[in-house]
Design brief:
- This is ABC-2 type transport system ATP-binding protein.
- The protein is α/β, with parallel strands linked by helices.
- It has 2 domains: 211 residues, 3-Layer(aba) Sandwich (Rossmann fold), CATH 3.40.50; 70 residues, Alpha-Beta Plaits, CATH 3.30.70.
- 35% of the residues lie in helices and 29% in strands.
- The chain contains 10 helices and 14 strands.
- The strands form 3 sheets. The chain has a 6-stranded mixed sheet with strand order 6-7-8-3-9-10, sandwiched between helices. A 4-stranded antiparallel sheet has the order 2-1-4-5, with helices on one face.
- A hairpin with a 2-residue loop joins β4 and β5.
- The chain is elongated and about 75 Å long.
C-alpha cells in the first residue's frame, strides 16, 4: 500500500500542492489525471524522493518510505533520462545493474522486455537514432527491468502507437496481477478509464475527485437521464424537471430526482420512446466537471 497524505508544496508565491491525499493498493492500477501544471509530476517526484514536500507524508504499508524502498521502485520520469549514444540493450542492462541486479539476471530481464515491448529489431541501435515512440519504449523497459515492487510512471503512454499502448497495458496488467501497485499519470482519459481500477483528479494542486472508476461514474451519473423520443410532439419537454439539453430527438436531463417514471409517462404520450435510461458519465465528462 502506497499512501500520499496531506502533501503541501510551494515555490515562492506559487502553491504547487495543497493537501494532496490518496492511496494505491497492492495490485491496483491508479490513474493520476489533471491539466498541465496541476501538480501530478510534483507529487510523483516527492513520492520518488526527487523533491521534498513542505509538509505531509509518503508511506508504504503505514511507515515512511526509505531510500531502500525507493531503490525497489520502478520510475519513469516525464522527461526521458536515457544515454543517447548507448545501444538499447546495453542501456536496459546498465540500469538493471544500477538497481542491484547481477549481469546474468539483467541480461535475461532485458531480453524479455525487448520482446514484450517490440524492441528486438532495435536492440543494437543507439537511442538517439530511435523514433520518439521507441525511445519511450526503452524508457519503460528501464523502469521495468529490475522487477519493481511499485511502479510510478509519468505519462508512460505519451507518443506510443495503439499497438505499443496495448503491449504496455498488458505488461502493467501483468504486474498488477502479481500484486504490484501501479501509479501512472496520463492525459488520455479514455485509456485511464479502460485500464485503471481507481483514479485521482487533481486541479491547481488540490485533489478534486478520487475513488474507484466505476464508483465515480455511478456517483456522478445520479440524476442524469437520457431519453430518445421519435416523432415527438413539439415542446413536450417543457416543464420537465432538471436541466434539459436537447439534440434532435435526444434529450439529456440532469439533476433529476426520483425514479423518472413520470418523465417516462410524458415521453410515451409525446411519441415513440426509443431509449429511456440513466446515463453514467465518461471519465472525460467527470474530469471536465471536476476541474471547471
Amino acid at each position: 500500500m502506497i499512501e500520499i497524505d496531506d502533501l503541501h508544496k510551494r515555490y515562492g508565491d506559487k502553491t504547487a500542492l495543497d493537501g494532496v491525499t490518496f492511496s494505491v493498493k497492492p495490485g491496483e492500477m491508479f490513474g493520476f489525471v489533471g491539466a498541465n501544471g496541476a501538480g501530478k509530476t510534483t507529487t510523483m517526484r516527492i513520492l520518488m524522493g526527487v523533491l521534498t514536500a513542505d509538509s505531509g507524508s509518503v508511506l508504504r504499508d503505514g511507515r515512511p518510505l526509505t531510500f531502500e524502498d525507493r531503490r525497489r521502485f520502478g520510475y519513469m520520469p516525464e522527461e526521458r533520462g536515457l544515454y543517447q549514444k548507448m545501444k538499447v540493450t546495453e542501456q536496459i542492462e546498465y540500469f538493471g545493474r544500477l538497481r542491484g541486479m547481477g549481469s546474468g539476471d539483467a541480461r535475461r530481464a532485458t531480453e524479455g522486455l525487448l520482446t514484450r515491448l517490440s524492441l528486438t529489431e532495435r536492440r543494437n541501435d543507439a537511442v538517439d537514432t530511435l523514433s520518439l515512440g521507441n525511445q519511450q519504449r526503452v524508457q519503460l523497459a528501464v523502469a521495468l527491468v529490475h522487477e519493481p515492487e511499485v511502479l510510478v510512471l509519468d505519462e508512460p503512454f505519451s507518443g506510443l502507437d495503439p499497438l505499443a499502448v496495448d503491449a504496455l497495458a498488458d505488461v502493467l496488467a501483468e504486474r498488477c496481477r502479481s500484486g504490484v501497485p501501479v501509479l501512472f499519470s496520463s492525459h488520455q482519459l479514455d485509456l485511464v478509464e479502460r485500464l485503471c481500477h481507481s483514479v485521482g483528479i487533481i486541479s491547481a494542486g488540490r485533489m478534486v475527485a478520487s475513488g474507484a472508476v466505476e464508483d465515480l461514474r455511478d456517483r456522478e451519473g445520479r440524476g442524469r437521464l437520457r431519453v430518445i423520443v421519435r416523432d415527438a410532439t413539439p415542446g413536450w419537454t417543457s416543464g420537465l424537471p432538471g436541466d434539459i439539453t436537447e439534440n434532435g430527438d435526444e434529450v439529456l436531463l440532469t439533476g433529476v430526482t426520483g425514479d423518472g417514471q413520470e418523465i417516462l409517462h410524458l415521453a410515451a404520450k409525446a411519441g415513440r420512446v426509443e431509449h429511456f435510461g440513466w446515463q453514467r458519465p465518461t471519465l472525460t465528462e467527470i474530469f471536465r466537471e471536476a476541474v471547471a
